[in-house]
Write a structure and sequence with these properties.
Structural class: mainly beta
Order of helices and strands: HEEEEEEEEEEEEEEEEEEEEEEEEEEEE
Mean pLDDT: 92
Strand order of the largest sheet: 1-28-27-26
Helix content: under 10%
Number of helices: 1
Distance between the termini: 44 Å
Shape: globular
């Protein structure tokens, strides 16, 4: 009788463990392609694409595509607008309070301001060369534009659509994230560090090394637990960092080549990094100081930028078809060239 009780207890405990594992796996893993949205060629020839911005409030997806930004309805996948007239666009920031959106154009060294209702361009703001990543910081009510070649950040008043100041970052910035409380964290790729910027005083508060990762490009944040997730291209690694002390937690996790975006999903507790070799690396935040690998999702070559739908937990990436590029003396091993007319957004869900 005692043996039977022990057996039942063990069986029950095992069932609970299996159930918990199945729930955990269902919440985090088994991402697969659920939809592909073809978008064709951008006007003007050539093929280039960069950041994807998901605006949860309007349920719109802003897709950077060379000379244009395509706007998608997140629930239907249909194109609801196009902002054109660009030369080489990168990022999009949305400021609903003023009814405006902001697009970086690195080649023109400008930020295009557009109306959120009509998608028509309102004005253009001169910024630094190679204007790339852009974000809106709600704490300071300012736009921050990061320029890699110019190694600075331009600060814009979105209501006036005017430049406030320029911050010398001491290196080439990449993706940045705001904590919502007045600090912006930005990757400085060529100095292998993260800088913490006070979004109100516009002063750099701290500089922290990201080793064992190197050449940090993408960053995301768990605001509740004050944790940064930074991914680098060499060594190719994702690391966790304390947002207050800059301490790197753990030894990091290997990722694919040419990472370009990190996201954090607070509802599921997952961190994901998308890479150009066609993979999304997904980790679970077991605790504020522990990440565990969940799965590596196979996407498509070139799908290095990503956005999160916080409602469905779907992940958006985009890419094109590619052809080999002829080597030159300066570039003996060049990257493949994207073929115009094959650009597409791919949605991965659970």
């Amino acid at each position: 009788m005692k043996q039977l009780r022990v057996g039942r207890f063990a069986l029950g405990a095992f069932s609970l463990v299996l159930g918990a594992y199945a729930l955990l796996s269902g919440a985090e893993g088994n991402y697969h392609l659920v939809k592909t949205i073809p978008l064709g060629a951008a006007p003007g020839g050539g093929e280039y694409f960069d950041y994807i911005n998901f605006d949860a409030g309007s349920r719109r997806v802003y897709v950077s595509h060379g000379t244009e930004v395509k706007v998608l309805n997140a629930d239907t996948g249909k194109v609801v607008g196009t902002i054109g007239g660009l030369k080489r666009c990168h990022g999009v920031a949305i400021v609903p309070e003023v009814g405006k959106g902001f697009i970086t154009d690195g080649d023109l060294a400008q930020v295009f301001v557009f109306d959120l209702k009509t998608f028509k361009t309102i004005s253009q703001i001169n910024v630094s060369k190679d204007a790339d990543y852009i974000l809106y910081d709600a704490a300071s009510k300012r736009i921050f534009v990061f320029a890699g070649d110019s190694k600075n950040a331009t600060v814009i008043d979105p209501a006036k659509a005017a430049v406030i100041s320029t911050i010398d970052l001491g290196g080439a910035p990449e993706q940045a994230v705001s904590d919502g409380k007045g600090t912006i964290y930005d990757n400085i790729q060529d100095t292998n560090e993260v800088v913490a910027i006070d979004s109100k005083t516009l002063k750099i508060k701290n500089r922290w090394p990201v080793a064992p990762a190197g050449h940090p490009v993408s960053i995301a944040m768990d605001r509740q637990h004050r944790r940064l997730f930074v991914s680098g291209r060499g060594p190719q690694m994702l690391v966790e960092m304390d947002a207050d002390s800059g301490k790197v937690i753990g030894e990091g996790f290997p990722i694919g080549s040419r990472v370009d975006t990190n996201i954090f999903d607070p509802a599921l507790g997952i961190v994901a990094a998308s890479t150009a070799d066609g993979t999304i690396h997904i980790y679970h935040e077991d605790s504020p100081d522990k990440l565990s690998p969940v799965e590596t999702v196979k996407t498509a070559f070139g799908a290095k930028t990503m956005a999160l739908d916080p409602k469905t937990h779907n992940l958006y990436v985009d890419t094109s078809d590619f052809k080999p590029t002829a080597p030159t003396e300066k570039q003996p091993n060049p990257l493949p060239t994207a073929i115009p007319g094959n650009f597409r957004v791919m949605i991965y869900g659970r």
